[in-house]
Amino acid sequence: MRITEHPILDFARGKKIKFTYNGQELEGFEGETIAAALHANGVRTMRESIHLHRPRGLFCNIGNCSSCLMIVNGKPNVRVCVEKLQEGMIVMTQKGKGELKC
Amino acid sequence: MLACEICVIGGGPAGLTAALHAASLGASAVIIDRNDYLGGQLIKQTHRFFGSKEQKASERGISISRELSLAVEKEKNIKVLTAATALGYYKDGVVTVEKDERFLKIKPQKIIVATGGAEKTLPFPNNDLPGVYGAGAVQTLVNVYGVKPGRRVLMVGAGNIGVIVSYQLLQAGMEVAGIVEAAPRIGAYWVHAAKVVRAGVPIYTRHTIKGAWGKKEVEGATIVELDEQWKPIPGTEKDFAVDVICLSVGLNPLTEILWQAGCAMKYVPELSGYVPLRNEYLETSVPGIYVAGDAGGIEEASAAMMEGALAGLNAARALGYSAPDFNSRRANILRELESLRSGPVGEKIRKGLEKVTLTERREMRSGLSNLSLLTSNF
Amino acid sequence: MLAENGVPTGEDLAQVLPAPERLAQGPVAIAECFQKIPCDPCYHSCLRRAIAPFADINERPRIDHEKCNGCGLCVNRCPGLAIFVVDQTYSDSEALVKLPYEFLPLPKPGDVVTAINRLGQAVGKARVVKVQSGKQMDGTNIVWLAVPQDLSMEVRHFKMEEVR
C-alpha cells in the first residue's frame, strides 16, 4: 500500500519499473528497495526458514538481520531490504540456504 | 590502497558531525557508509528534535540530515564513500571495505567508529511470522519509501522509538491498536506519550505480548498483564486483530569493528550492550580509534551529534591540527553533552558512562586487568 | 497518571494553568510539559520573552502569563506538541483553543469536527475558526477551534467528521 498524501513528507518517486516476483509481473519505482516494492504490492513473505520451513519476512530493514534473503536474478541470499530494485529483476522466494550456480 | 588522515565509519548524525568538525580544523576525512545515502537513521525521523540550538532542536530529523549531508558535500576535505561496507580492521591499521562488489583497502591515521545501533528482537510464540518488524524498519518503509506494511499495528515497547513511531504511523494513515510496555512506567518522553494517547492510542503499561497468531503472516496478537514480579497474570489476556506487530524493545550498539580492533569492551546494561572503554575525548583503549554515537552506547541523536563533534575535533587535534578557539570549542561541546545528560532522563546514560569513561590512558590499560573486560585477540 | 498512561492528572494541570483572572483577559499559552527533559526551543521561539530563560536545559518551561499574549509561535516550535493557546474571551458561550495539528486532511474554517480530550475520547463538537498552515509552519499547523466554554480546558485534539 502506497502513501499518496503525507502531512510532513513528499515522496518523490522515481521512474516506474517492472520486475517479476515468483514469475508474476509487478511494478515498483526506481530508487526503492526490492523489499519496499514487494510491500507496496502486498508481498510480505520473503523466504522459507531453513529447518522448519516457516515463512519469513522483513525484520530490521537496514541490512543487518538476514531475515529477508531472497533469490534475485538467480543469486541467492540477497538482502532485499537494502538491494535496490532494477528494471526486469527476477525476484524469487528463497527456500533453504540457497545455491550458487556457475 | 587509499591513505587518509581520518576514516569515519558510519555516515549518520555522529559520523557526519565528526567529519565536519575534523575538517573544520583542516584535517581530511573519508566517510564510509553502507547505505547509498548519508544521514543514517535521521532520514526517517520526521519529528522535531529535542535539545537546544546546538543540536538543531525543533528541526525535524529529515532536515538535519539534509543540512549535514549538504555541508559534508561542500567540504573539500571530506571524501564520501557510500554503498561501501567496512568489513574489517587489520593489525597493520588497514580498514577493508566492500564497494560495488570490489574490495578496497584504506590506511587511515585515525579512525572514528560511528556505526550506530541495530534493533533488538523479543522472544514470543510466532515472533518469526512475516508482519513482525522492528519499529525502525517500519519507520523506514513508511517515511522513506512511502509504503505501508499493513493496516493496523500493535506496538511493543513504550520508549521514545515505540511512541514516536506509533505517532508517525498514524500520520501515514495506519491504525495503531495500542502500545504495550512491560515496565510499570512509560519510558518515552511524556509529551510524546500524551500526543499519541489523545490521538486515540492506548498505552498498556505492565503488559507484554504473549504471542502472535496467524497462519502464514501476522493476523493478530495477544497481550497479557504482568504482576509486580513481571509474571503474566492468567485471565488478563486481550486479543488484537492486527496485521503488523512492531518491536521497539531497544537497540544494540554495532561494535564489530571495535571488537576486531581489540578495543577493551565492557557490558554495560545502561548503554544497551557491549561498548568500548573510552577517555573523555572518546578515544578507545586502542590509540587512534575513537567512538561516537550509538556505537558507544545507545542514546539520543542529539547526543550522538555532540559526540561526533568531540571525536572529530580530538582526532584532528591528535594529527596536529588546531585553531585559536580549539579549547573553547571543545569545552563548549563537553558542556553541551553534560547538560543534555544532566536531567532525570539522562540518569541511566550518566550511570552507564561512569562505568566506561576513564580519564587516563594508563587507567584504561590497567583497567584491562582490574575490571572484568573482554578484548579480542586476532 | 502521565508515567503510566500518558494522561496528565488534575494536579499536574493545576501547576501550569493560568489564573482565572488572566484567562478572563484573552488568549494565553499553556505549556502542558510536565517532565524534565533536555529541550528548550519554546524559550527561543518567544519574541516577548514570556518564557523564562532556562538555567538548565532540563528545566520545564515557565510561562509568565502576564507577558504572554497568546500569539502561538511556541505552539508551532514545541517538539512535544505540548503547548496550547486558550482564549476564553472568544464569546460568551464559546472559547477558542489553538492546537498543533500534524495530520491530513486539514480542516477548513467552518468545518464541524469531533472535539477530543487528553484521553483520546470524544467530548463534543467543535467548529474550526482558522487554520494556520503553509510552508513556514513546516508541517506543524495550528488549528483554531471554537468549543463550549466549559470544554476549553478539556479539548486538546480533534478528529475530522466521517464524510458520508
Description:
The complex is a heterotrimer of chains A (102), B (378) and C (164). With 102 residues, chain A is mainly beta. Chain A contains one helix and seven strands, in the order ββαβββββ. Chain A has one helix at residues 34-40, and strands at residues 16-21, 24-29, 47-48, 55-56, 69-72, 75-79, 90-95. Chain A starts with 15 loop residues before the first strand and ends in a 7-residue tail after the last strand. The mean pLDDT of chain A is 95. Chain B has two domains: 2-118 and 251-370, 3-Layer(bba) Sandwich (FAD/NAD(P)-binding domain), CATH 3.50.50; 121-247, FAD/NAD(P)-binding domain (3-Layer(bba) Sandwich). In chain B, strands 1, 2, 3, 4, 5, 6 and 19 form a seven-stranded mixed β-sheet that branches. In chain B, α1 packs parallel to α2, α4 runs parallel beside α5 and α7 runs antiparallel to α8. Chain B is globular and about 65 Å long. The mean pLDDT of chain B is 94. In chain C, β5 and β6 form a beta hairpin. Chain C has two domains: 1-89, 2-Layer Sandwich (Alpha-Beta Plaits), CATH 3.30.70; 91-164. Chain C has five helices and seven strands. Chain C is α+β, with helices and mostly antiparallel strands and 164 residues long. Classes of the chains: A mainly beta (102), B alpha/beta (378), C alpha+beta (164). Chains in contact: A-B, A-C, B-C. At the B-C interface, α5 and α8 of B face α1 and α4 of C.
